[in-house]
Design brief:
The relative contact order is 0.07. Strand 1 (6-10) and strand 2 form a beta hairpin. The protein has a domain at 86-142. It has a three-stranded antiparallel beta sheet, with no helix packed on it. With 151 residues, it is mainly α. It has six helices and three strands.
Length: 151
């Protein structure tokens, strides 16, 4: 399937190309009024931080927001850091071992290296998938129903 739109940037010049119709639009955004550029900048930050909200627990989303902030403070827009999955790993271990979550969290804090070991355990991976599925089901249940259309 052909790409409908392609956006590229050089400095403050954006080029928006439409390969299927052979057209393109080029604009130097520095020519826009200051207020418009400021609004666009804040929209971009909102989008960047908003990316953290997709399909994760509140703890994971918060960790992702912290990682985005840390990367931005270091001048990195594209980041390679991953959110701290310790909370969901601990929850999975607590369920599997039938141990109180605070006890597992305390153990993880005391010996962080064991969290990596737990995370590589296939049973823990399955339990994490179950937790995520449960959370996604709750979100779907609370969400407005949208008809699924098949063309």
């Amino acid at each position: 399937m052909a790409q409908k739109q392609r956006v590229s940037r050089v400095g403050t010049v954006l080029t928006i190309e439409y390969p299927t119709i052979g057209k393109k639009f080029v604009v130097d955004v520095s020519k826009y009024p200051h207020e418009m550029r400021e609004t666009a900048e804040m929209h971009g930050w909102g989008q960047k931080y908003g990316d953290a909200k997709s399909g994760k627990s509140a703890e994971e989303k918060f960790a992702e927001v912290q990682a985005i902030h840390s990367a931005a403070m270091q001048g990195q827009w594209e980041r390679t850091a991953h959110p701290d999955l310790t909370p969901i790993i601990c929850e999975a271990v607590a369920r599997l071992t039938k141990t109180a979550l605070p006890k597992i969290e305390a153990s993880a804090k005391k010996k962080p290296e064991q969290v990596k070991e737990w995370s590589s355990n296939p049973e823990v991976k399955v339990e994490i998938a179950k937790i995520r599925a449960e959370r996604a089901a709750k979100v779907a249940e609370a969400a407005e129903k949208v008809e699924i259309k098949i063309a």
